[in-house]
Amino acid sequence: MARIERVELSMVDLAPKVKRTDAIQSFVSQETPMVRITDSDGAVGMGYSYTIGTGGSSVMRLLADHLCPRLIGQDASGVEAIWHDLEFSTHATTIGAITSIALAAIDTALWDLRCRKANLPLWRMAGGARAAAPCYTTEGGWLHIPAQALIDDALAAREKGFTGSKVKIGKPTPGEDAARIGALRDAMGPEYEIMTDANQAFSRDTARRRAEALRPFDLAWIEEPLPADDIQGHVDMARAAAMPIAVGESLYSVRHFAEYIARDAASIIQVDVGRIGGITPWLKVAHMAECFDLPICPHFLMELHVSLVCAVQNGRYVEYIPQLDDITGETLRIANGMAHAPETPGLGIDWDHGALRARAIDEFNVDIRKAI
């Protein structure tokens, strides 16, 4: 039985590759907490999570002061037991983003360690449903981008084999949103999938008006039309809207997903490893969704989510938003619009350790070797 002997913490800050805007914010920074776990056999696992610009320092203090010291001496193979122990130890701050982001960094490191010791890639260890999954792109669909540029990006994506594009909505009037989406539909034809994302910007009345204005365009989904904690509003939207309702990036607990699913409040499940608290709860949500014939189309983190989408039977899409290129070597392989799950043992992310050290913010570098 190999025990955890050392936990190393760091954080890097990554700037977006392109300007990213939606109806409520501009994405200017990705704070990326990193966790490196070493066991008594000398095996190492690397995990991470992310913010979109705020909260990184709080995540790092939670990891350094409260969570990671509890790992020392634990059986590294007991991933489920460790996750529940850590969640319970933070019961006063769960359920919420800071705690879930911290848990995710640890849990992904433990899964990386587990898969490496088994000499298996994550997608096989976690289920092995398929070796590749289709992509849709979000990088060319931000809210500030004019209609012709949306079209140009979608045409280029289709040439590469992508089957869909996501476009942010939330312009001042329904007509403006409809004009952009209508122009894209006219240019791309009926076969190309168009996803839309409101980023929780609407109230109940405006959400219904937007959904009605977008009814003619046969959308793959409308994402987060309402604040994520308004479950009843999403129930009503799901009954009234012509297109499927997608939720998940702003849900931080398996129980939140359970209520959405039980109440038919969403039909596209976008569970995010970095927001739900790691791979362990991510898989629970995916399997729960499968029981209700609901697809998994996770939010962001394509370099990690490709393996999980490929692990489960109901994984449908990988969202194309590259973000780790500056701190990795070999990047995610995409061919003919299909993202291929890495075959290397572990998470399959080729970390550039020199780049990580160069970008690490000194105040968050912590080396833990003693238990609480």
UniProtKB/TrEMBL annotation:
Protein name: L-talarate/galactarate dehydratase
Domain Mandelate racemase/muconate lactonizing enzyme C-terminal, residue spans: 147-244
Keyword field: Lyase, Magnesium, Metal-binding
Keyword Transferase included in the entry's annotation: no
GO molecular function: lyase activity
Protein species of origin: Roseobacter fucihabitans
EC number of the protein: 4.2.1.156
SMART domains: MR_MLE
